[in-house]
Amino acid sequence: MIYRNHLQKMKDPLQFSDQPTEVGMECFICGTESSEVPSAGDYKQLACPECGEYKLSGTAIALFKEHNWKFNIEFTRLWLETQRKGGTIPLISSERAATLI
Asked: Is residue 69 in some structural domain?
Protein backbone atom coordinates (compact mmCIF):
# COMPACT_ATOMS: atom_id res chain seq x y z
CA MET A 1 0.00 0.00 0.00
CA ILE A 2 1.14 3.46 -0.79
CA TYR A 3 1.25 6.14 1.91
CA ARG A 4 1.85 9.85 1.47
CA ASN A 5 1.45 13.11 3.34
CA HIS A 6 -0.86 15.87 2.21
CA LEU A 7 1.30 18.74 3.39
CA GLN A 8 0.29 21.04 0.58
CA LYS A 9 -2.44 23.61 0.90
CA MET A 10 -4.41 23.99 -2.29
CA LYS A 11 -5.56 27.36 -3.67
CA ASP A 12 -9.21 26.45 -3.29
CA PRO A 13 -11.09 25.19 -0.21
CA LEU A 14 -9.98 21.60 -0.82
CA GLN A 15 -7.34 21.63 1.89
CA PHE A 16 -5.89 18.34 3.03
CA SER A 17 -4.73 17.34 6.48
CA ASP A 18 -1.11 16.57 7.21
CA GLN A 19 -1.92 13.04 8.40
CA PRO A 20 -0.42 10.10 6.47
CA THR A 21 -2.93 8.68 4.04
CA GLU A 22 -3.57 5.42 2.23
CA VAL A 23 -4.04 5.88 -1.51
CA GLY A 24 -6.43 3.83 -3.58
CA MET A 25 -9.86 4.17 -1.99
CA GLU A 26 -12.80 5.49 -4.00
CA CYS A 27 -14.49 8.68 -2.87
CA PHE A 28 -17.92 7.93 -1.39
CA ILE A 29 -19.32 10.99 -3.15
CA CYS A 30 -17.93 10.96 -6.70
CA GLY A 31 -15.99 7.69 -7.07
CA THR A 32 -12.64 9.40 -7.81
CA GLU A 33 -9.54 7.65 -6.46
CA SER A 34 -8.91 9.20 -3.07
CA SER A 35 -6.77 8.82 0.02
CA GLU A 36 -8.04 7.52 3.35
CA VAL A 37 -6.79 9.40 6.40
CA PRO A 38 -6.41 7.18 9.49
CA SER A 39 -9.12 7.94 12.03
CA ALA A 40 -9.85 6.94 15.60
CA GLY A 41 -13.62 7.39 15.51
CA ASP A 42 -16.60 5.62 13.99
CA TYR A 43 -16.11 7.25 10.61
CA LYS A 44 -13.93 7.13 7.53
CA GLN A 45 -11.98 10.23 6.59
CA LEU A 46 -11.13 10.72 2.96
CA ALA A 47 -9.14 13.24 0.96
CA CYS A 48 -10.57 13.42 -2.56
CA PRO A 49 -8.94 15.63 -5.21
CA GLU A 50 -12.43 16.59 -6.48
CA CYS A 51 -14.55 16.80 -3.29
CA GLY A 52 -11.88 17.72 -0.74
CA GLU A 53 -11.41 16.20 2.67
CA TYR A 54 -14.42 14.99 4.64
CA LYS A 55 -15.56 12.40 7.17
CA LEU A 56 -18.41 9.94 6.67
CA SER A 57 -19.92 8.23 9.72
CA GLY A 58 -19.95 4.45 9.99
CA THR A 59 -23.75 4.49 10.22
CA ALA A 60 -23.99 6.55 7.02
CA ILE A 61 -21.68 4.10 5.24
CA ALA A 62 -23.88 1.19 6.37
CA LEU A 63 -27.04 2.94 5.15
CA PHE A 64 -25.49 3.68 1.74
CA LYS A 65 -24.51 0.03 1.35
CA GLU A 66 -27.86 -1.30 2.61
CA HIS A 67 -30.01 0.95 0.42
CA ASN A 68 -27.59 1.39 -2.50
CA TRP A 69 -27.81 5.17 -2.07
CA LYS A 70 -25.75 7.57 -4.20
CA PHE A 71 -24.81 11.10 -3.24
CA ASN A 72 -26.03 14.03 -5.31
CA ILE A 73 -22.48 15.05 -6.22
CA GLU A 74 -23.05 18.74 -6.92
CA PHE A 75 -25.28 19.31 -3.88
CA THR A 76 -22.92 17.40 -1.58
CA ARG A 77 -19.87 19.36 -2.77
CA LEU A 78 -21.73 22.62 -2.13
CA TRP A 79 -22.65 21.46 1.38
CA LEU A 80 -19.04 20.44 2.09
CA GLU A 81 -17.80 23.83 0.88
CA THR A 82 -20.14 25.70 3.24
CA GLN A 83 -19.07 23.48 6.16
CA ARG A 84 -15.36 24.10 5.52
CA LYS A 85 -15.83 27.83 6.04
CA GLY A 86 -15.80 27.09 9.76
CA GLY A 87 -12.25 25.74 9.45
CA THR A 88 -13.04 22.11 10.27
CA ILE A 89 -13.23 18.91 8.24
CA PRO A 90 -16.95 18.27 7.61
CA LEU A 91 -18.58 15.14 9.04
CA ILE A 92 -21.43 13.65 7.05
CA SER A 93 -23.64 11.95 9.62
CA SER A 94 -26.35 9.43 8.71
CA GLU A 95 -28.99 12.15 9.17
CA ARG A 96 -27.12 14.60 6.91
CA ALA A 97 -26.33 11.89 4.34
CA ALA A 98 -30.05 11.21 3.91
CA THR A 99 -30.49 14.84 2.80
CA LEU A 100 -27.60 14.68 0.30
CA ILE A 101 -28.79 11.76 -1.87
From this structure: yes
